[in-house]
Amino acid sequence: MAAKTDDSGPVLPASIESAWGLRERPPKGPRPGMSVPAIVDAAVRVADADGLAAVSMSRVAKELGAATMALYRYVGSKDELLMLMVDTGYGPSPGPPAPEDDWRAGLTRWAWAEHEVLRQRSWLLHVPISGPPITPQQLGWMEDGLRCLDGTTLGEGEKMSVLLLITGYVRNEATLTSQIAEGSRAAGVDPSEMMPAYGRLVARLIDPARFPALHRVLSAGVLYQDDDPDDEFVFGLDRILDGVEALIQRRAG
């Protein structure tokens, strides 16, 4: 968002106002068929195909068959474009919790929905986070996450903190999974062989007297197993939700 403020609060970039339906842009001389959604969709197609590094105003303009400068009538900067790409990349929120869901089931579904988005579009993990979300879809995700905690004993600030904790965990797990997959591809190694190979390497390197705890892990065969990444995700998410449950119970007592 722009730094300039007035009595009504921060001034939004025009393209973000357009995403909220607050204005149309540009005011005159638009290229036929050109619009903020068309530009953003083209940028997302580039990122889906070639990664975030391939996205530039000139590349997007080429996708649309337009001059680069024509894009700036609709999107003021690449930073604005990235913000709108994240909104489109995430897409609609998973919706409010189902009537039969308790808070835990609702947050589990919410976390898995974000996990799936980031698995399908790992380029989202490379977009710099320059501030809190302000676009329509992003705030929709926030709204649905908060609604999962309706009726609990948590305060409103605690509910926000729970969402930040969960989304931070989801992003971290998605980043690790994505980077390991990229590393295995670069090394020409089958991802299913990475952990077993790592276990064998560590076994050669360590002295059990110096690394007794790690030696016990190796002896148990843990590092030789090619575990499903989803199993690790479930374990971590469940432990976070266990902590949230303990806090809810403490507030109730």
TrEMBL record:
InterPro entries, per the entry: Homeodomain-like_sf, HTH-type_TetR-like_transc_reg, HTH_TetR, Repressor_TetR_C, Tet_transcr_reg_TetR-rel_C_sf
Keywords associated with the record: DNA-binding, Transcription, Transcription regulation
Region (Disordered): 1-32
Keyword Transcription among record annotations: yes
Any one Gene Ontology molecular-function term assigned to this protein's record: transcription cis-regulatory region binding
GO annotation (BP), single: negative regulation of DNA-templated transcription
Residue ranges of every copy of the HTH tetR-type domain listed in the record: 33-93
Matches recorded under Gene3D superfamilies: Homeodomain-like (1.10.10.60), Tetracycline Repressor, domain 2 (1.10.357.10)
DNA-binding region extent: 56-75
Nucleotide-binding among keywords: no
Record's protein name: Transcriptional regulator, TetR family
Organism, as annotated: Micromonospora saelicesensis
